[in-house]
Amino acid sequence: MKxxxxxxxxxxxxxxxxxxxxxxxxxxxxxxxxxxxxxxxxPFALIASxxxxxxxxxxxxxxxxxxxxxxxxxxxxxVREGQVLVELDPRPFRQSLxxxxxxxxxxxxxxxxxxxxxxxxxxxxxQNVLSQTEWxxxxxxxxxxxxxxxxxxxxxxxxxxNLMYATIRAPIAGKTGRLNVHVGDTVRATSGEPLVTIIQxxxxxxxxxxxxxxxxxxxxxxxxxxxxxxxxxxxxxxxxGRLAFVDNSIDAQSGTLLLKGEFPNKDGGLVPGQFVGVRLxxxxxxxxxxxxxxxxxxxxxGPYVYVVNADSTVTPRVIDVERTVDQMTVxxxxxxxxxxxxxxxxxxxxxxxxxxxxxxxGGGKA
Length: 366
Hints:
It is a single chain. Helices cover 26% and strands 37% of the residues. It is α+β, with helices and mostly antiparallel strands. It folds into 4 domains: 30-40 and 287-357, CATH 2.40.420.20; 46-56 and 199-285, CATH 2.40.30.170; 61-89 and 168-184, CATH 2.40.50.100; 90-165, Orthogonal Bundle (Helix Hairpins). It is elongated and about 135 Å long. The two termini are 68 Å apart.
């Protein structure tokens, strides 16, 4: 019997549809980057913001008034303790000193004469030749001239100091700041505005504060290997220092405790007034379980990571996070050493999804 053409066509279409139905579409792998669970020695640190301050600084002012005749340094340069900075016209002070010396010499001579006269009068007084009134007058004259000589001596010392103060010297060694006077300017004694400021740049301190809630932790670990690290900016490596000062009371208004770290600052990279980041490392936990911080996500049940299985599928796993330090998360429970976790691409994952592990940007190992 002969088949109709339309029947043969129906058979071909049916067979073709059946073959296509047997070919299931292949599931696409999700490209991700991964990292292995590691163990490291991880520091426990308190993070704060601080400001740089000099241990020693001086605002140099004139102790006497006068006309500036010489500036013996360049602003911004480093000076020694006792180095001459500014000189005032010394002539008025020298004249005052000479006058004080002359007055002192005259009054000392008068005091000596009065003392000798008193000694001569003593014998006359003992012989009743000199009356009591005359004797008292001799005593008064001797004491008055002696007191005048002592006052003249003080005035002479003051005049000598003023002459010495006409030469203004550096009270400390350090780096000078902006110069506020020039040759020919008239300065006044203790006018309030410093002629120049000097700071000691090495070593230097950084003042910072920690919240009241962190104070018990500080006190618990302070006697150990407490170390302070300062982070000037994102382009420079952290600088190590030591904890030099802990205030004796908590500020009632801010609820914080003031601390200061001390740093060598040999390169002068820390400048007074500069704001910096501070890490107060209280202790180091050995063999802590860590993963990169970007591997950790947060869900309804808390922090979790995607763990890569042997068959390239992923499983979400809830973990207990202890803390995060320098882009590394310390995991208290939930992961084992050597397991692989997803660090990038989690947003496209679901439980059981297959992944394609790719190399991280920069050519590092997956």
